[in-house]
Design goal:
With about 110 residues, the protein is an alpha+beta fold. It is built from 5 helices and 6 strands. The chain is globular, with a radius of gyration of 15 Å.
Protein backbone atom coordinates (compact mmCIF):
# COMPACT_ATOMS: atom_id res chain seq x y z
CA UNK A 1 0.00 0.00 0.00
CA UNK A 2 2.83 2.37 0.83
CA UNK A 3 4.49 1.89 -2.56
CA UNK A 4 1.21 2.41 -4.41
CA UNK A 5 0.46 5.60 -2.44
CA UNK A 6 3.89 6.91 -3.53
CA UNK A 7 2.97 6.63 -7.21
CA UNK A 8 1.93 9.63 -9.26
CA UNK A 9 -1.82 10.05 -9.86
CA UNK A 10 -1.39 8.82 -13.45
CA UNK A 11 0.56 5.73 -12.31
CA UNK A 12 -2.00 4.96 -9.57
CA UNK A 13 -4.82 5.20 -12.12
CA UNK A 14 -3.07 2.69 -14.40
CA UNK A 15 -2.35 0.43 -11.41
CA UNK A 16 -6.00 0.37 -10.30
CA UNK A 17 -7.15 -0.40 -13.85
CA UNK A 18 -5.46 -3.81 -13.50
CA UNK A 19 -7.54 -6.85 -12.58
CA UNK A 20 -7.92 -7.97 -8.94
CA UNK A 21 -8.71 -11.70 -8.84
CA UNK A 22 -8.78 -11.59 -5.03
CA UNK A 23 -11.69 -9.13 -4.96
CA UNK A 24 -15.03 -10.62 -3.94
CA UNK A 25 -17.99 -9.82 -6.18
CA UNK A 26 -19.39 -6.42 -5.25
CA UNK A 27 -16.29 -5.46 -3.26
CA UNK A 28 -13.76 -2.75 -4.00
CA UNK A 29 -10.38 -3.64 -5.52
CA UNK A 30 -7.41 -3.50 -3.19
CA UNK A 31 -3.79 -2.57 -3.85
CA UNK A 32 -2.74 -5.92 -2.36
CA UNK A 33 -5.22 -7.91 -4.47
CA UNK A 34 -4.03 -6.18 -7.65
CA UNK A 35 -0.42 -6.88 -6.70
CA UNK A 36 -1.10 -10.55 -5.92
CA UNK A 37 -2.95 -10.94 -9.24
CA UNK A 38 -0.43 -9.17 -11.49
CA UNK A 39 3.08 -9.43 -10.02
CA UNK A 40 6.11 -10.88 -11.76
CA UNK A 41 9.20 -12.32 -10.07
CA UNK A 42 12.30 -10.22 -10.66
CA UNK A 43 14.64 -13.12 -11.24
CA UNK A 44 14.74 -16.79 -10.31
CA UNK A 45 12.05 -17.64 -7.76
CA UNK A 46 13.45 -18.05 -4.25
CA UNK A 47 12.17 -17.05 -0.80
CA UNK A 48 13.99 -13.69 -1.21
CA UNK A 49 12.96 -12.87 -4.78
CA UNK A 50 11.58 -9.36 -5.25
CA UNK A 51 8.38 -8.97 -7.28
CA UNK A 52 7.10 -6.08 -9.38
CA UNK A 53 4.19 -4.88 -11.45
CA UNK A 54 4.58 -4.22 -15.17
CA UNK A 55 1.37 -2.60 -16.38
CA UNK A 56 1.65 -3.64 -20.04
CA UNK A 57 2.84 -7.20 -19.30
CA UNK A 58 0.02 -7.64 -16.80
CA UNK A 59 -2.39 -7.33 -19.73
CA UNK A 60 -1.03 -10.48 -21.40
CA UNK A 61 -3.43 -13.41 -21.14
CA UNK A 62 -2.58 -16.95 -20.05
CA UNK A 63 -2.16 -19.93 -22.34
CA UNK A 64 -0.96 -23.44 -21.50
CA UNK A 65 0.73 -23.25 -24.92
CA UNK A 66 2.02 -19.66 -24.87
CA UNK A 67 3.82 -17.94 -27.72
CA UNK A 68 5.86 -15.68 -25.40
CA UNK A 69 7.95 -15.87 -22.25
CA UNK A 70 8.62 -13.19 -19.65
CA UNK A 71 12.35 -12.80 -18.99
CA UNK A 72 14.04 -10.75 -16.25
CA UNK A 73 17.32 -9.16 -17.35
CA UNK A 74 19.21 -8.75 -14.06
CA UNK A 75 22.08 -6.72 -15.54
CA UNK A 76 19.75 -4.00 -16.86
CA UNK A 77 16.99 -4.59 -14.27
CA UNK A 78 14.51 -4.86 -17.11
CA UNK A 79 11.60 -7.23 -17.71
CA UNK A 80 11.17 -8.37 -21.33
CA UNK A 81 8.59 -10.30 -23.28
CA UNK A 82 10.29 -12.63 -25.75
CA UNK A 83 8.58 -14.65 -28.48
CA UNK A 84 9.04 -18.40 -27.92
CA UNK A 85 7.81 -19.18 -31.44
CA UNK A 86 6.75 -17.34 -34.58
CA UNK A 87 3.67 -15.20 -33.95
CA UNK A 88 1.26 -14.67 -36.80
CA UNK A 89 0.14 -11.16 -37.73
CA UNK A 90 -2.90 -10.36 -35.59
CA UNK A 91 -2.34 -13.32 -33.23
CA UNK A 92 -2.70 -12.56 -29.52
CA UNK A 93 0.53 -12.63 -27.52
CA UNK A 94 0.18 -14.98 -24.54
CA UNK A 95 2.27 -16.11 -21.59
CA UNK A 96 1.95 -18.97 -19.12
CA UNK A 97 1.06 -17.78 -15.62
CA UNK A 98 2.55 -20.93 -14.08
CA UNK A 99 6.12 -21.65 -13.05
CA UNK A 100 8.04 -24.44 -14.77
CA UNK A 101 7.22 -26.96 -12.02
CA UNK A 102 3.47 -26.46 -12.43
CA UNK A 103 3.46 -26.31 -16.24
CA UNK A 104 4.03 -30.06 -16.50
CA UNK A 105 1.02 -30.98 -14.33
CA UNK A 106 -2.22 -32.31 -15.78
CA UNK A 107 -4.82 -29.85 -17.10
CA UNK A 108 -7.00 -30.46 -14.04
CA UNK A 109 -4.14 -29.77 -11.64
CA UNK A 110 -3.20 -26.61 -13.57
CA UNK A 111 -6.80 -25.36 -13.45
CA UNK A 112 -6.86 -25.69 -9.65
CA UNK A 113 -3.69 -23.60 -9.40
CA UNK A 114 -4.96 -20.92 -11.75
Amino acid sequence: KKKVSGLSEKQRKKYFQLFDSKCLKGSKKSAEGIFRTNNFALGPLTTDTEHGIFVVMSRLNHSCGPNCEVVWQADSECQEVVASRDIEDGEEMTICYLNMENRVKTAGERNKIL
